[in-house]
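Quick one, probably user error.
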């Protein structure tokens, strides 16, 4: 067995023969397979991490609801706030509204919350858009925060998502008008009442009430919010809780639910169990993972399917190694016959070709790994070059709902699985020619000599 690695390496040395060319092609096939698996897997993993980070950056970690409407929220608020591990709590009123700015209408979702304080306020302020410092206009590290977040008495202020602001050309200080769905429903009921009224006074009174109902909420844009999550920034407008309550005709102790953020989002399941113990049974508590389960499941399924497809391509590529080994076996029939005639055992002969397959796999893995690291390092430059050459947008942030270029995250576990699977495929591909060579009869091998 000790001479097996020596002979395997000798057979792989380039000799400008047809076999050497096939060997190089086999190594290239393994390298491309490893390269594709590492690059694609890292991008899908990075995309999942980027989505999760963008969601955790703005979304609550826990949401407490009671059939879509909650009365007497201050009592529930205090109970939730007292739970160890809860960092901040706010009641919320949310729903789709009609927004009017300069005659352009859109339908964002408002999110009425209590003005944040302390660390939560700092976190929300950090998401506001920034503008260049007039003294250092070209220094990206000296950007100035534009606007502010909603304060304690900002009942007539709003913070608009960056995508909404960009699409409507909204700036800090502009005025927007908001119409709620609840006022539209009330108007329709009042119209029915006016049409059915027999007395002229009742009709006039009903028309005056309708005018009051249709009066929009006029708000000043205090800040523009950029969370990094395109979907969130394209749909959400933050307002004061009491402003949202007025829009929806709620009393001060009424809301749609309570949102909480924890000191560790990955312990949300444990806190969910605690909240179930202290809250009445009709309250539903959901974690951020449950709320966004569809998104995370879709990303995970795509990642698994892509890994499977690339692994199948890797298996197909390993057949190139098998064909190379079989060709070597045929060409080295005489040498194999001499070795067996000199007393070499079947296992020693088999190991020559197994080592050859392992060496091809190792070289392919090393080359593929190096190419993958280079591609990941320069991924945004490569994407930009491809876009310029072929006029194609390689990574559409709007489509993929994330900003910041092509994401990429590599984990030791993923790299280990990819490299080991490549080496195992190459080794298994060498088994057939190894056994063919091992059980070759010396008399048949030397008959032609």
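Nope, works fine. Designed sequence:
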């Amino acid at each position: 067995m000790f001479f097996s690695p020596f002979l395997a390496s000798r057979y792989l040395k380039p000799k400008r023969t047809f076999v050497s060319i096939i060997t190089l092609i086999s190594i290239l096939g393994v390298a491309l397979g490893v390269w594709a698996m590492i690059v694609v897997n890292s991008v899908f993993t990075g995309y999942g991490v980027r989505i999760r980070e963008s969601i955790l950056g703005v979304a609550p970690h826990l949401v407490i609801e009671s059939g879509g409407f909650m009365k007497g929220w201050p009592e529930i608020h205090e109970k939730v706030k007292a739970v160890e591990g809860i960092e901040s709590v706010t009641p919320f009123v949310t729903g789709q509204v009609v927004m009017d700015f300069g005659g352009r209408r859109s339908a964002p979702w408002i999110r009425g919350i209590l003005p944040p304080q302390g660390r939560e306020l700092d976190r929300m302020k950090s998401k506001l858009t920034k503008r260049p410092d007039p003294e250092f206009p070209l220094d990206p590290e000296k950007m100035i925060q534009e606007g502010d977040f909603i304060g304690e008495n900002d009942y007539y202020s709003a913070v608009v998502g960056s995508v909404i602001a960009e699409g409507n050309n909204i700036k800090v200080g502009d005025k927007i008008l908001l119409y709620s769905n609840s006022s539209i429903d009330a108007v329709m009921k009042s119209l029915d009442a006016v049409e059915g009224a027999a007395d002229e006074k009742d009709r006039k009174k009903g028309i005056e009430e309708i005018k009051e109902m249709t009066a929009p909420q006029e708000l000043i844009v205090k800040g523009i919010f950029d969370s990094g999550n395109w979907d969130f920034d394209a749909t959400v407008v933050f307002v004061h809780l009491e402003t949202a309550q007025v829009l929806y005709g709620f009393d001060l102790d009424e809301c749609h639910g309570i949102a909480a953020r924890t000191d560790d989002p990955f312990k949300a399941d444990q806190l969910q169990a605690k909240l179930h113990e202290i809250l009445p049974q009709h309250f539903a508590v959901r974690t951020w993972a449950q709320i966004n389960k569809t998104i995370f499941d879709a990303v995970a399924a795509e990642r698994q399917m892509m890994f499977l497809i690339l692994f199948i391509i890797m298996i197909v590529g390993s057949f190139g190694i098998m064909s190379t080994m079989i060709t070597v076996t045929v060409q080295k029939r005489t040498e194999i016959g001499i070795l067996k005639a000199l007393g070499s055992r079947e296992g020693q002969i088999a190991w020559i070709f197994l080592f050859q397959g392992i060496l091809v796999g190792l070289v392919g893995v090393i080359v593929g790994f190096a190419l993958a690291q280079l591609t990941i390092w320069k991924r945004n430059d490569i994407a930009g070059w491809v876009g310029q050459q072929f006029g194609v947008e390689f990574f559409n942030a709007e489509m993929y709902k994330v900003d910041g270029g092509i994401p990429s995250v590599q984990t030791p576990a993923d790299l280990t699985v990819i490299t080991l699977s490549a080496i195992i495929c190459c080794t298994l591909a060498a088994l057939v020619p190894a056994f063919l060579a091992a059980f070759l009869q010396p008399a048949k091998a030397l008959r032609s000599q």
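The mean pLDDT is 80.
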